[in-house]
Specification:
Blueprint: H1 11-21, H2 31-43, E1 47-51, H3 54-64, E2 72-75, H4 82-89, E3 93-96, H5 108-120, E4 127-131, H6 140-150, E5 153-157, E6 165-166, E7 169-170, E8 179-183, E9 196-200, H7 203-213, E10 217-218, E11 234-235, H8 246-256, H9 259-276, E12 282-283, E13 291-292, E14 298-302, H10 310-319, H11 335-338, H12 348-356, E15 357-360, H13 368-384
Parallel strand pairs: 2-3, 2-4, 4-5, 5-8
Antiparallel strand pairs: 1-9, 6-7, 6-13, 8-9, 10-11, 12-14, 14-15
Bound molecules: pyridoxal-5'-phosphate.
């Protein structure tokens, strides 16, 4: 089966990991700050903190922005559940904003409309989590303008999007947001096994997230309320153990050296697909002019007349060795979220998109012959189903 995504681990990566295993520190050592500095430099952000996953990163990002009981977080339905769950971890409530049918990212029109209505009803969100779906940036200028106008904070869930650009800037520089979150899960652009990172330009948010990452404990003399001796530390808030290991950071750092190469490979392969599918009843990914996608995912959308056949086509692809997937089942339709009151029909664009979307394999080391197989089987599936 050709998977929809997979990691690329080279000898260099393995050597770097082994070097850490043989060193004095396998966690809380020097590789963490090295990896953080490298990612901060790469994205031109002031601060970066390595975290054990993007899910944990989203949690402490929300907490650092003060999200809590009675607050509201908005995100999109077309995302992984973690983008919404982070609100519930904080005791806040979740609501969704529908997607744009062209980019599959948050619809600015829907956002604006919902903000106007919520202002009248006095239930504005405290935090908005926008998701750069498949690695293509959301319309951050509009989001930033609305954030200022209505007074909410913005987290970019850039789990798909490290290495992608918005305007002239790499995603992660937080020019138009408070915090950006990356994931280094093995199917994402670069991997540390499990892992994530939070990016920010705000010293205060950086300080809070640093505390939250490690039990709320500090040894920083500037922050201690007193000093009882060399052993002394203070737990100042309730935090977690969301630390990344040095083993993981070594892998991530080694991978980062190849990120631009990876994204170039992804673009080349995406172009081959888009060309091959141009005459098929398939909608290929639209690329907005202000963006350069990291192409984490290549999603094909079946044209309307094939909507009823998605399941058959999907099964046909899998049976014939193409490891397709679907990103995403609208979060509000998950049983857990339905039980919170969400219903079919609440976010029609995300639901309609879901009925047509199939993620086909795309990763840097996919061979030409593997890609030709995928193209061939996709064509067959439309003829046979
Ligand atoms: C993968 C992913 C996450 C979660 O990342 P982990 O590092 O596995 O916790 C969150 N949001 C989106 C959009 C993702 O794709």
């Amino acid at each position: 089966m050709i998977p929809y995504g997979r990691q690329d681990i080279q000898d260099d990566d393995i050597e770097q990991v082994i070097a850490v295993l043989k060193s004095d520190f396998i966690t809380q050592g020097p590789m963490i700050p090295k990896f953080e500095k490298a990612v901060a430099n790469y994205c031109s952000a002031e601060f970066a903190l390595a975290i054990n996953s993007a899910t944990s990163a989203l949690h402490i990002a929300c907490l650092s922005l003060g999200l809590g009981d009675g607050d509201l977080l908005w995100t999109v339905p077309n995302t992984f559940v973690a983008s919404a769950n982070c609100a519930l971890y904080c005791g806040a409530r979740v609501d969704f904003v529908d997607i744009d049918p062209q980019t599959y990212n948050i619809s600015i029109a829907a956002l604006e409309e919902k903000l106007q209505l919520s202002k009248q009803q006095d239930c504005l969100p405290k935090v908005l989590v926008v998701v750069h779906f498949s690695g293509q940036s959301c319309d951050m200028l509009s989001i930033h303008r609305l954030a200022k106008q209505y007074g909410f904070s913005v987290i970019e869930d850039a789990s798909h999007a490290i290495g992608g650009y918005y305007l002239d800037n790499l995603i992660g520089g937080c020019q138009y947001s408070d915090i950006t979150v990356f994931s280094f899960h093995p199917v994402k652009i670069i991997t540390s096994g499990e892992g994530g990172m939070v990016m920010t330009n705000c010293p205060d948010l950086h300080g809070k997230m640093q505390l939250l990452r490690s039990h709320g404990i500090t040894r920083d003399e500037q922050l201690l309320t007193e000093n009882q001796g060399g052993w002394y530390y203070e737990q100042q808030i309730l935090g977690f153990n969301y630390r990344m290991t040095d083993i993981q950071a070594a892998l991530g750092l080694s991978q980062l050296a190849r990120i631009d190469e990876y994204i170039e490979q992804r673009h080349k392969k995406a172009q081959v697909y888009s060309q091959a599918f141009s005459n098929l009843p398939i909608i290929t990914p639209y690329q907005a002019p202000d963006t350069y996608s990291s192409y984490h995912l290549y999603v094909i959308r079946l044209e309307q007349q094939f909507t009823d056949k998605k399941r058959k086509i999907f099964d046909f692809l899998r049976i014939n060795g193409v490891g397709v997937n679907c990103h995403y089942i609208p979060v509000h339709l998950q049983p857990y979220y339905r039980q919170l009151g969400f219903r079919c029909g609440d976010f029609p664009q995300a639901e309609n998109y879901y009925k047509q979307a199939i993620t086909i394999p795309l990763y840097p080391t996919m061979t030409r012959s593997q890609q030709m197989t995928v193209i061939d089987v996709v064509q067959q599936s439309l003829n046979c189903c």
